[in-house]
Design brief:
Elements lengths: L14 H13 L7 H4 L5 E7 L2 H10 L10 E2 L3 E2 L20 H5 L10 E10 L8 E14 L2 E12 L5 E11 L1
Antiparallel strand pairs: 1-5, 2-3, 4-7, 5-6, 6-7
Length: about 180
């Protein structure tokens, strides 16, 4: 019998993927906290995201939203200004929302166990132009108990790094076990 750890032959993995998977599984042995225990009201985390035409295409293809308003890239031409009723190409309205979790959870801390996204409300103020660099900020604004379950509420803002234009705001609740 071999003691070599093998990867799933049905899902080939690169060496980096194998290393990251092993590190993640090993980190589960560390002392883990719940999201409720890790977050304090007033905590703010933020990151910048450059929204490239390639990122927009990957997202639009994944959600099958083939709107010409989002096209800021064309084969053999690469970047183009694109066209929409707002001028150039724009970002699909909820693309940035998918990146909020990468901000909301502090990657420098051990893995938070038992959290479920239970509420989401988005307000969109301006279309985001393809090529923009945005700052996504998540602030813990409340912790509350409802029906004997613990929740953390966040207010999320997405604004342009250069001009400060507020593109969108979200309220999100995370149920913590």
């Amino acid at each position: 019998m071999t003691t070599e750890i093998r990867t799933d032959s049905l899902r080939p993995m690169t060496n980096i993927q194998i290393q990251q998977t092993r590190e993640f599984v090993k980190s589960l042995d560390e002392v883990c906290q719940t999201y409720w225990d890790m977050v304090n009201v007033g905590d703010v985390l933020s990151r910048e995201l450059h929204i490239t035409p390639e990122l927009v295409i990957l997202y639009a293809d994944a959600v099958e939203d083939y709107n010409p308003w989002y096209e800021g890239w064309r084969m053999n031409t690469w970047y183009i200004p694109g066209e929409s009723p707002f001028g150039g190409a724009i970002v699909p309205p909820l693309l940035v929302s998918h990146f909020v979790l990468s901000v909301q959870f502090d990657h420098t801390k051990p893995f938070a166990i038992g959290s479920i996204h239970t509420f989401h409300d988005t307000e969109i103020f301006e279309p985001i132009p393809v090529g923009a660099t945005v700052r996504i900020s998540a602030k813990a604004i409340d912790k509350f108990i409802k029906r004997e379950r613990r929740y953390v509420r966040h207010e999320v803002t997405v604004e342009d790094v250069g001009s400060g234009v507020l593109y969108m705001r979200e309220t999100r609740d995370i149920l913590s076990l």
